[in-house]
Amino acid sequence: MYRTAKTGQKLMIEILPDKCDFCGCCVGVCPEDAIELKEADIRIIDELCTNCSKCIWACPIEVIVFNKEGVLKEVI
């Protein structure tokens, strides 16, 4: 099953939460306010994300990545 972005396309952006330092750089650049950051939890709000990739380029430690399959991979 694919995650769907606001545009109806497959969601192609994924956050690796176990590597995130919760700095908030991605939240500040998201034009759709599609990234939710609460204390030590971060997630993409699928219904708001447009796959613009601004968050990927803003992340200083590269924990937001393209997921070419559009499927959320379980992070262990």
TrEMBL record:
Q: Which Gene3D superfamilies match?
A: 3.30.70.20
Q: Which SUPFAM superfamilies match?
A: 4Fe-4S ferredoxins
Residue stretches making up the 4Fe-4S ferredoxin-type domain: 11-40, 41-69
Spell out the PROSITE patterns in the cross-references: 4FE4S_FER_1 (PS00198), 4FE4S_FER_2 (PS51379)
Database matches in InterPro entries: 4Fe4S_Fe-S-bd (IPR017896), 4Fe4S_Fe_S_CS (IPR017900)
Q: Which Pfam families does this entry report, sorted A to Z?
A: Fer4_10
The molecule here is called: 4Fe-4S ferredoxin-type domain-containing protein
